[in-house]
């Protein structure tokens, strides 16, 4: 099985790029100082709110966006 490292042999980008784009912002319809447009996210993504149920399958190309109770992004990772 080949080693897959997001940002190196994946076309999805590097985690630090997404951290810089998303951290502290909400996910919405438009991009501005406080929001990031959902249509500009990677094709394979999911937004996870506190307490959300999630599948445990690992997809190294899927961007996981973790938001807090107010909907602001506080973490991103691949999986």
UniProtKB/TrEMBL annotation:
Spell out the InterPro entries in the cross-references. Prot_inh_I78
Name of a matching Pfam family: Inhibitor_I78
So which domain of life are we looking at? Answer: Eukaryota
Q: What is this protein called?
A: Proteinase inhibitor I78
Q: Which organism is it from?
A: Penicillium brevicompactum
């Amino acid at each position: 099985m080949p080693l897959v490292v997001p940002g190196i042999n994946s076309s999805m980008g590097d985690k630090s790029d997404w951290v810089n784009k998303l951290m502290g912002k909400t996910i919405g319809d438009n991009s501005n100082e406080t929001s990031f447009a959902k249509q500009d996210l990677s094709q394979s993504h999911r937004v996870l709110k506190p307490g959300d149920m999630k599948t445990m399958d690992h997809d190294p190309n899927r961007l996981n966006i973790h938001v807090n109770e107010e909907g602001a992004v506080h973490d991103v990772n691949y999986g």
